[in-house]
Write a structure and sequence with these properties.
With about 200 residues, the chain is α+β, with helices and mostly antiparallel strands. The protein has 6 helices and 8 strands.
Amino acid sequence: MKYKWLDWVIQIQSIAQAGLAFAENQYDADRYRMLRDLSVEIMHHYTEVSHEKLRDLFAGETGYQTPKVDVRASVISDDRILLVREKIDGKWALPGGWADVNSSVSESVERECLEEAGVSVIPERIIALQLAGRHNDHPYPYTIYKVFVECKMVSGSFRDNTETFAAGFFSRNDLPGLSTERTTRKQIDMCFEAHGHTLWEPVFD
């Protein structure tokens, strides 16, 4: 589902952030701050997220606004895919998270698998690059690119960490409850489909 009001929030916030970065006088800067405050009010009205948290989200970055990058690992072994149980909602998702500054996509995927699932992997190829707002039903307050990377399992086992409760391998027809903000059934099906092809053309929006 796509929320029209969310498109407006993202556009207003983007204009405000860019304006604050390039404003040439205090008068213009004040007007762009008013736009940013308006985006916070709209987001708060529709999501009931606190003003404080929204201001942190919207005021935490400076300069021209660009998409955030979320990396997700597809690790399939014996026709089962690796998922982790998220502490934030108790549901399951592909291992992954925000790509780090000064880290490549491969390095970010390796790090997320080790931190969340306790396993070492070798990234092998890009499966897809998706615009999260078109595939994951969640009112993101900013634009997110999701990068799905097929990885080969090397070794390791789950260990206690701050982000996940557990990790495990699941068959395509026996998936647990998914954290659809992070991973949907269609995205998992896509990973299995890619795994079944020696040659795979990356999918992108």
